[in-house]
Write a sequence for this structure.
């Protein structure tokens, strides 16, 4: 389970490996928690994307290599969450023509299948989590593709970012989907709806719409396309791939996420892969270090997805396609064939990767929650400046510690 640690004392990273496994070539610099970065870039070899983006790219690649485009596109779940808000009391969306095609990529920690049925206890144990009545969006990436042919940018938004919500008030951005979904489900039941599948479908729609509206208001960017993947889908994808290589600077463990890793190289799959990308406790910079974990993991996974070992293996492709059909949700106008063209450059570093500017990762909300504080105006100016942004290398993905690698795999905290 990946619970909030609101009000809890910040935990320290595990300082040393627990075994004699080989350590990375260089140790992270000692010291207290670094100042939060205002923007971060990674070397071109690291494809820094989120869980949902891996699913979309994998499916696009699968469509090229094994199935026809129409077979793949036609079997996907879709959700119509874009366009004008349902209520005239809500602010209109930003202008549609902002110089870029903007794709919102969402990783959801739902403990249900695509039909809204709760996952069995045995599967929850495999996922190293437990049943919960809430749904959070733990991974949020805004992919901006300039219409003038400029370099695309993938922008990460920390899950605990404190934002204004559509119907008034403020909340963590990762709670908007789940809070709205729960309220909509209660309203549907109060109106006499007894079909649980209909309640799940319609309340999910309400949650997604609220999330899109929140991000549009927060960034002042009009969302053109939507892609979402859940926990089960991520598990199935990593199983289909046969594991993904990751590297850690130090040994670390966290009972909430199920993480328990020694220093050095690991090949992770299934529940272990989920633990790797979901851990945030016992990491020096909490959620920001988790973003780095996700980004580096996806770089390694993307490389494997697009490798001959997967694309020329009919069995792996069948498993991969089945996993994506069971877990991926797109807006009806999301054209995978067009997106695949954009996605081809991800593994070769033709995308610049950033994180929104933050004021502090150790903020407190008025009601005592641990939050990431931001200046919305600064975020909006930063996001607007990404169109035509040329990127640049040099800064480590770590954003505060020395970057190392083993056998070409980037090591992280």
């Amino acid at each position: 389970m990946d619970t909030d640690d609101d009000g809890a004392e910040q935990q320290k990273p595990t300082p040393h490996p627990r075994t004699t496994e080989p350590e990375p070539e260089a140790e992270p610099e000692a010291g207290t928690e670094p100042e939060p970065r205002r923007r971060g870039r990674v070397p071109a070899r690291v494809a820094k994307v989120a869980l949902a983006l891996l699913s979309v790219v994998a499916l696009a690649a699968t469509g090229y290599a094994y199935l026809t485009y129409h077979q793949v596109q036609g079997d996907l779940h879709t959700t119509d969450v874009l366009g004008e808000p349902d209520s005239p009391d809500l602010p209109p969306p930003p202008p549609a023509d902002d110089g870029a095609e903007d794709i919102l990529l969402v990783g959801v920690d739902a403990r249900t299948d695509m039909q809204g049925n709760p996952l069995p206890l045995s599967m929850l144990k495999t996922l190293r989590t437990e049943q919960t009545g809430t749904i959070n969006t733990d991974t949020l990436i805004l992919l901006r593709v300039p219409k003038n042919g400029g370099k695309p940018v993938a922008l990460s938004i920390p899950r605990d970012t404190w934002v204004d919500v559509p119907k008034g008030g403020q909340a963590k951005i990762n709670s908007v989907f789940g809070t709205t979904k729960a309220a909509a489900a209660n309203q549907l039941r109060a109106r006499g709806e007894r079909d649980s599948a209909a309640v799940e479908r319609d309340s999910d729609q309400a949650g997604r719409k609220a999330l899109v509206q929140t991000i549009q208001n927060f960034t002042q960017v009009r969302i053109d396309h939507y892609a979402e993947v859940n926990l089960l889908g991520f598990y199935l994808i990593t199983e289909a791939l046969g594991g993904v290589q990751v590297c850690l600077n130090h040994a670390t463990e966290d009972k909430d996420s199920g993480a328990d890793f020694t220093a050095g190289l690991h090949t992770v799959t299934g529940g272990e892969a989920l633990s790797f990308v979901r851990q945030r406790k016992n990491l020096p910079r909490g959620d920001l270090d988790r973003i780095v974990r996700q980004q580096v993991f996806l770089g390694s996974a993307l490389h494997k997805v697009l490798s001959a070992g997967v694309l020329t293996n009919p069995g792996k492709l069948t498993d991969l396609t089945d996993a994506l059909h069971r877990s991926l949700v797109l807006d009806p106008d999301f054209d995978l064939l067009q997106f695949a063209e954009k996605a081809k450059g991800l593994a070769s570093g033709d995308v610049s990767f950033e994180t929104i500017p933050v004021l502090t990762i150790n903020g407190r909300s008025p009601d005592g929650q641990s939050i990431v504080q931001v200046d919305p105006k600064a975020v909006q100016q930063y996001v607007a400046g990404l169109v035509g942004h040329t990127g640049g290398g040099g800064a480590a993905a770590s954003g505060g510690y020395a970057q190392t690698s083993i056998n070409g795999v980037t090591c992280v905290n």
User: Anything to note?
Assistant: The chain has a mean pLDDT of 74. Residues 196-219 form the longest helix (24 residues).
